[in-house]
Amino acid sequence: MIQTPVIVTFANQKGGVGKTTLCVTFANYLVTKGVRVVVIDCDFQHSIIKCRKADIRKYGEEFAPYDVLAYEAGDKKVMTSLMEKLHNEPSIDVVLVDSPGSLKADGLVPMFVNSDIIVVPFHYDLVTIPSTAAFLMFIDRLRKAVGERMKAQLFIVPNLNDGRVGKRSELVIWDNARETFSNYGHVTAKIPKRADMERFSTMAALDMQAGIIAPVFERIYVSIFDTANPIREPVLSGIQLTKKSDKCKPETTGEGNQNQQ
After folding, report:
1. CA dist., res. 40 & res. 87, Å (int)
2. Rounded to an integer, what distance in angstroms lies between the CA atom of residue 67 and that of residue 72?
3. From the CA atom positions of the chain, what is the Rg in Å?
4. SS3 state at 200
5. What is the band of 91 on the pLDDT scale with cuts at 50, 70, 90?
6. How far is residue 126's CA from residue 239's CA, in Å, rounded to a whole number?
7. Residue 173 pLDDT > 70, yes or no?
């Protein structure tokens, strides 16, 4: 079991891989396990903050199952101070950080160094694989540079996988990429491309998402708590139990797809 509070950062320099959606759906998953969660939105677009505001207008603030806070990843001192504060907050079990889809922000180094787990979503395609490989090499160089200060486990997640896509030669590349990525961390089961994973909510029930993400999220959860069972009795609202809602759709930008989440 990792000592709590545990900081889990969702990161990749390649935009459009679904890290923001996975960050929120993992928060919702942890709530069902009785975990006390806070989400830190450091992405340039602050899509999670925007979704939380929309959820509050729709459902009311009293139904919020966890706090969502916005921070800018461009300030190294602010991010260093935030990481230290979060690691010493006894009221929190798990902190989820949605990082920018870029390596240009100055605060990323203290963010990554102080993370206990880094979740790296990617797609099996000819653009995302080399970009993800470059990101993993960056994390590896950072780990070597700072030594024992950086203890983050890496979970590398093939996300939004479409089994219908890929020529025979490309499938060989996908297999080779999985083998190479496994040298940097644990490559999880694939999360299939489904319409239910196109949107997210910071309050409402997971609906069909639960079955889609459970194999991957349970693997990460067990690595944190050494059990698949809830760590305490979850307190769920009617929305979290039964509501099928109109979920927020992650925003995209045209800036080279670097910030698409």
Report:
1. 13
2. 17
3. 17
4. strand
5. very high
6. 40
7. yes
Cα 173 from chain centroid (whole Å):
25
Backbone angles phi, psi at 13, to 5 degrees: -75, -15
- Domains annotated on the chain, with CATH: 6-242 (3.40.50.300)
Q: Are 55 and 201 in contact (CB under 8 A)?
A: yes
Q: How far apart are CA 173 and CA 217, in angstroms?
A: 26
Dig out the tokens for 202 from the structure.
């910071």
Residue 35: is its pLDDT beyond 90? yes
> Going by DSSP bridges, is the β-strand pair 117-122/94-98 parallel, antiparallel, or unpaired?
unpaired
Q: How many CA atoms lie within 13 A of 66 on its CB side?
A: 33
**Phi/psi at 10 (5° precision):** -95, 120
User: For residue 134, what are its two tokens?
Assistant: 């470059």
Tell me the pLDDT band of 169, cut-offs 50, 70 and 90: confident
- 44 token code pair: 């340039």
